Amino acid sequence: MVFYIVIHTVFTAWSSYFTIYSILRIIKHWNDGKERVRTSGGRLIVKIAATVACAVIQLIHIVDFFPKDYSQSDLISRTIYFSISGLSWVFSAILVYFDYSRRLKSQWRGQRLYWIIELINNIILISFNLYSGIYTFTGSELYQFDIIQIFAYCLSILICLLLTFYSIFLPNDFTMITPDVYLRLKKSSMLFDDTGNESTDERISIKASISGYKIKQVSASSIVHYKITVTINALKYTISRSLFDFEELDKTLREKFPKNLYPNLNFPNFHVEYFRKLSPDERGVELNKYLVGVVCQDFMTPDLLNFLQIEGDYRDILMLQHSQMAEERYNIHETPKRATSSTFSYYTQAITTGEIEKSNHPQVYQWMIRISFPSYRNDEYTGETDYYLHTEIESLGFEKLKAFKFKDFCDFHKNLKKSISPATPVKFPSMNYTKSLKKNDKEAIEYRKTQLEYYFSQILNDPSYLTKESLEFIGCDADVNQVLNLTYTPTYKLCHEVTWENDISDDSSTFIVYSMGISKLTRNSVFEVEWKISKRFREFDGLHEKLQMRHSSPLLKNYLLHYGKIPKDTNIPALPSLPSKFWTPLSTLAEIEERKKNLEVYMKELLSNPAVICSYAFREFIGDKD
User: Fold this and answer.
1) Which positions fall inside the PX domain (predicted)?
2) pTM greater than the 0.90 cutoff
């Protein structure tokens, strides 16, 4: 049994090394990457679950060793090994999350090699035990113990196989940004105007102002929380901060920018004792002046960004611009050394919006019937809102302005679902998305108007949804075919192969963008029009979902038959299959290239499908405004 003791000693030394490595790594990188926003953690959850399971399995090996006839030395070596091994697996689980939260690359000398060697360890141990006849399978108690031990080893091997795969092929739980993105960010000017005016589309404009306050009673004291409205380009949200929060921010900034090192830096006045003597209104005015002075390029540090709750790519760009400005303006050449988790090397989520999600439809495409909600009226007695719907069919000389209550729109949607069954209509604006409507909140009503306009633009400009009842609802007595005759079905094709790139969008998320060229033969077939579109995979997924919702509409089949798009007694052409989703972010070139090729095939099939190219969703997707 000397070999039994030797292999346990060797494996114990390896587990001890990894435990020490994990502790040192956590200490070294404790302050790294904490400013980053967390990404999708699908693979992260699997890794943590796997490592925790392995830790539990190690305990199973030692929890019931008494039925075996181990010598004292064997028993000691066995217990020490599985105890230290279990502890190392616990640290492995901790390190998985720590690397993820700090955006640290998994190292071969640590986590990645540890999983591979643990796979080898388990294979060697179970092989040795089977070969040396430790498992006798005699006696009910011994038989049960042997089965538990073998099952534990087999389960460990399976889990380690999974972790080994991750170690070799998918070591990181985030998507890397290509170096050209970082260089492009460094070259672009995406911060503030020196004039203080609204910035261009390629810049980031930040404004923060106090718009109100609330007094909260805590124990025997009252605390004033000021409502701060933060505007970043088109994004607008609110945060709540107390005088104590302002005090901590000012204290931190002054420690970071001492007067002797930054003599030309103009700090806004902040006298906390003076502020405490003021009334909440007067204090709010003074704090607002402080905000105006501090929300600028000079102070754009993680402390201010945390105070304003700025996250995602906006945060990255602001920090980058601040560091560049500091180097140029203050001639700072010696900067504190930072560990390997570079701020601009990893994937981040989008910035969260404020209380009311703004419309994502800046352009509403309308081909047959033009829709708008120009105004509304509130009833002072009932509190209900009348929405004025303006519809126009220019070619037919039709124009109508008609008032509806929201209940009328709800009834219309219910009847439409019956008319197009088994198809499903597009998403209807929610009735309960905010309580502000009951208080006649202008912002909430404007938001609902925008959503209703987008809803009716889709319903009244898609052959799958346009019904006689829909036309009667808007006060039009024209026949459905009269309206459908106003549009034509163009011929589309891909004029360039699909390409992909990593890009940063204005909604503050980093992702893979697939670009392609679309060409369309004009109505009189004289020439082709070409343009380029760039889409994320989730936009393809959203399009596919909308196409599936409308595909089984009887109205669509009648339209295709009436205009000779499909032969009689045939069904609607089936939709192509969308390339399969990955439940974790794409992290290898091969995965991205495979998806790109599949998306190209998918788009070619869509462009040749008559049931698709007449749809509102598809024409909106490819950006065909004509």
Assistant:
1) 204-491, 492-626
2) no
